[in-house]
Structure formats: structure tokens, C-alpha cells
Amino acid sequence: MRVPGLIFATEELMRDIHQDQSIQQVAHVAHLPGILKHSIAMPDIHWGYGFPIGGVAAMDPDEGVLAPGGIGYDINCGARLIRTDLEKKDWEPKKKEVMDALFQNIPSGVGSKGALNLNDSELKKVLTEGVKWAIQNGYATEADREHMEESGCMPHADPTQVSVRARERGRPQLGTVGSGNHFVEVQYVDEIYDEATAHAFGLFKDQITVMIHSGSRGLGYQICDDYLKMISQACNRYGISVPDRQLCCVPLTSPEAHDYFGAMNCAINFAFTNRQIMTHGVRETFEQIFRRSREDLGMTLVYDVCHNIAKFEEHVVDGKKKRVCVHRKGATRAFPPGHPLVPKAYREVGQPVLIPGDMGRYSYVLVGTDRAMEETFGSSCHGAGRVMSRHQAKKIAGGRNLFKEMEEKGILVRAPGRGTVAEEISEAYKDVADVVDVVHGAGIARKVARLRPLGVLKG
């Protein structure tokens, strides 16, 4: 190990963490050339491909490496939160209509296809321009773009580095939820912990919000798959020795890293746009059911954050500001007050940090801190973290009527089938409150509000 491993967790959470090989993966990541300070793991850590999910690693730009396993297959899987001026009492009479309309308007499930089957030329514009394309085509506003990490577009995206197969897979999937733990969730604010910051984010008690969690779909998966094969071979050519072949990597200065960055940034821009098209569908649905304009409904974007990404940022290392490449895999950027990359509207309080939980309990809004910049390269957790495989979850769900169980809790679920709902039962996850309490207690993000689900559209 070139650096120590640093895991944020309680003793109780460590018992769950010890159930898989994720701690060993933290140690493996610490072997990578050019890694700085620590191999970091968040309290939602669990086993992943190469890196643990919930892992953070920053690399020296000259001596460090780029590892696709440190980003993952779902490039720029991320979350966004939409606020409204509606209150919980407004939801009750319309809830079934809203959920049926969302299910109709936003495609979900394995291999789901959206209404926008773009030609290859138009898709390349999406890959290059990200949310700028959505603005030009009437699916987004400048205000949306201003409230997104990286303003909804990574530069240096290069569609020529994206395979024909990846483009073919992504082309019909823009504006779709996908499967697994992805969702569109109608929620209400049930607890405020920090009134001033909540007010800055436009949040208030009993308010209706909508959270979207999805990524780059088949396009991102195929890009990862394509480059893992190429980088696995190149790793040996560069004489890089890794303790796990899933940690294959190349020098950040290499042509292979340049090509992967070009393709990865395309997937990042696709994912930003994917969530934006779904946001447009959510707004249209609420306009349709509540018979009010989105402006009258107060449907504005609070923020959009990435969970699976690698990018260059400026951080303090050994007392000096340094440009480093930060890998975040199942981790959320958590920049503090005053940081120039925090939107102007939030600069006095800090960046919103969105932490989805499981579909039966709650999610959280946090805010970034100076401590995160000092200890975790401006990073926090990203969710609850699985404690049970999908197969185990399905087995436990057995013959249960999961839709009825959820409705008895006041949560309407819409999904193409029972399978994904069974895989995503609450028991399959850590209690996200325990995870959030760790990062709040460690000071790497602060609690602002808790959101409880009212309706869930699952993949």
C-alpha cells in the first residue's frame, strides 16, 4: 500500500462492511501508482468492480493513473432534486393520477426506450454538449444548467472515442429510468435540520419534491466495457502491477487515458441530459394533472450531482493547492461555502449533497463543508449501500405482495414488473440514516433536510 486506507463508519456499520470484500478493495486501491493521501471509503461502502462502491481516490496528474473500475459501469449515475410549491395536502387527491401519468410518460425497466430515438448525428451533439443540447431543444432552461454539477456538461467529450455499439445502445434510451436501483420518486420534506440552508435551497416542511436517480444507461455500460478490455492490455504494457486485475489502469498522461476521458465525458453528458429529459417529463406530468404551469407550480431544479465520475479538480495536498484527478465511485461531491464551483445561489451556504435512501424509508439533503475538502477531496457518501444481493432480496421477498405493503405505508409504487421491486426492498439496504449520521458526525457533510417517499416509479 502506497497510502493508508480511510473508512468512515461506526462500529455497527463496520459489522455490515465486513460481510463482503470491500475493505480488501480499499487496500487494493491504495496500491495504485500516484494515489494521494488516502484510499477513502464512505459509510455506504460495499463490494464493487475493482474499487468498492463508496470509494474515493485522488491521483497525482503526472505520476497517477486512470482506472475505469474507479468510475464504474454506470458512468455518471447521479441524482437530482426538483422542488415544487405544492404541499403534502395537495398530493393526496391527485396521487394515483400523478403516479399513473409518470409511469406512462417516463419509460422504465431493463432495455426501456424513450420517445427520442435520435439519429447518430444528433446523438453526437448530446454527447458533446450535454444539457446545452437540452436547452436548445426546449427540454431545459439556463436556470437548470446553473444548478447542476459541472453545469451539466463536461468539456473535452469526444464522440469519435465512443464505439458504434455504445452509440447504438444509447440512442433510443435518452429520457429513460433504466432498471436496478434507479427511480423517479415523489417525496415530501418531513424534517428540517438547518432552516437557513434549507431556505437557501428552497425547501420547507411538508413540501412536495421529486428526486430522480439514473445514469448513462447502455451507452455508459458499453463504454466502460470497451475500455476495460483495452486498458487491461495497456496496463501490462506500461508495466503497472495491480493486486486485482479489475484495477487495470493506465497513466493519466497516456494516449489511452486521453481516449477514455473523451469517451467517459460523452457518457457523463449523456447522463446529465437523460436526467434532464426525465425532468421535463415530470414537469409535463405535474402540469397535466394539477392543471397549472410549471412556473405556477414552482418546479425548479435544486441540484444535480454525479455519483460515478473521474475529473480534475483543485485540492490542497501537503499544504499546497494542486490539480488532481479525483475518482468518485458511489460518492458525491460535497464542496463548501465560498467555493467557485458552487452555484451562485448557494455559494454562501455550500453545495447541495443529495443522498437517496431505499424506497420504503427516506432520503436526505445535506450540504458540503470545508472538512470534506480537507479530508475527502470534497466528497461525501452517495446513498444507503446494499447489504444484500439482488438474489437474496428476491428470495426474502418471496410471495409477499410488495405493492400492497408499500401502499399500506402510504407509498404508491409503479414498475414494469415485480422483479425490480423485489430486488429493491428496504431490507436489502443499510438504513441511510445511519450512513448520513456518520458523514454528519465526521463533518464531511451536514444534514439539511429529510425527505420521505410518497410515490415511486421503479425500473
How would you characterize this protein structure?
With 459 residues, the chain is an alpha+beta fold. It has a single domain (5-458), classed as Alpha-Beta Complex (tRNA-splicing ligase RtcB). The protein contains 17 helices and 17 strands. Strands 5, 6, 7, 9, 13, 14, 16 and 17 form an eight-stranded mixed beta sheet that branches. Helix 4 crosses helix 11 and helix 10 runs antiparallel to helix 11. The longest helix is centred in the middle third of the chain and has 36 residues, at 255-290. The protein is globular, with a radius of gyration of 21 Å. The mean pLDDT is 96.
Topology of this protein?
Blueprint lengths: L4 E3 L3 H7 L4 H8 L9 E8 L6 E7 L5 E2 L11 E10 H4 L3 H11 L14 H10 L1 H6 L5 H5 L17 H7 L12 E10 L2 H7 L5 E8 L2 H21 L12 E2 L3 H36 L3 H4 L2 E7 L1 E10 L2 E10 L2 E2 L18 E4 L7 E5 L2 H6 L3 E2 L9 H8 L4 H7 L3 E3 L3 H6 L8 H11 L3 E13 L1
Helix pairs in contact: 4-11, 5-11, 8-10, 10-11
Alpha-carbon distance between the two ends: 39 Å
Unreliable segments of 5+ consecutive residues: none
Q: Quick one: biggest sheet? A: 8 strands, mixed
Number of domains: 1
The level of helicity is: 25-40%
Radius of gyration: 21 Å
Give the averaged pLDDT, no decimals. Answer: 96
Helix count, per DSSP?
17
Helix/strand structural class: alpha+beta
> Per CATH, which architecture?
Alpha-Beta Complex
Give the number of DSSP strands.
Answer: 17
CATH topology, anyone? Answer: tRNA-splicing ligase RtcB
CATH top level label: Alpha Beta
